[in-house]
Q: What sequence folds into this?
């Protein structure tokens, strides 16, 4: 057995790497949940995900939004209805095709996304600051490789301080309107 704390522990062991990623995932889910705590009386994590997509994409067709969220259009509409009721999103008929519904985040919805994203960034920054410089470098290398293997594009430095999808790469694509 390799001693805990050894940087090479399980480096070639898929199960050890998987356990480490699952543990990190649990930490990141906890960070996300805490960042949502201030607004959880108004928005759930799935609704926040929808707000992030709308905030990033701009005006979006209901069908396109449902596809990005990988839910049925009827499910997306129920979620949108709740967001509209709380003033976080808005809907209108597409003037180019009256059978289509266009959705967008309101200014209040955008502020909600910004608040939650800022809280998440602050907590992650505090965790990263507790790492030694060489650990930070190793983490960047490892996470970059992990993200590339999973098909998640790197967040550009210019967007580093802007709200960014919480792992939903497709949310940055053309809005399809």
A:
């Amino acid at each position: 057995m390799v001693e805990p704390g050894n940087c090479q522990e399980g480096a070639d062991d898929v199960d050890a790497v998987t356990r480490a990623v699952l543990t990190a995932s649990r930490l990141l889910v906890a960070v996300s949940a805490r960042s949502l705590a201030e607004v959880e009386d108004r928005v759930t994590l799935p609704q926040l995900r929808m707000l992030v997509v709308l905030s990033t994409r701009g005006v979006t067709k209901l069908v396109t939004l449902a596809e990005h969220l990988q839910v049925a259009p009827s499910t997306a509409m129920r979620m949108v209805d709740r967001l509209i009721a709380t003033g976080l999103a808005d809907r209108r008929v597409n003037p180019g095709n009256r059978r289509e519904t266009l959705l967008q985040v309101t200014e209040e919805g955008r502020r909600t996304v910004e608040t939650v994203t800022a809280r998440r960034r602050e907590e992650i920054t505090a965790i990263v600051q507790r790492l030694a410089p060489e650990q930070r470098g190793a983490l960047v290398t490892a996470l970059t490789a992990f993200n590339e293997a999973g098909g998640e594009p790197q967040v550009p430095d210019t967007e580093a301080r802007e709200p960014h999808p919480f792992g939903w790469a497709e949310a940055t694509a053309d809005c399809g309107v």
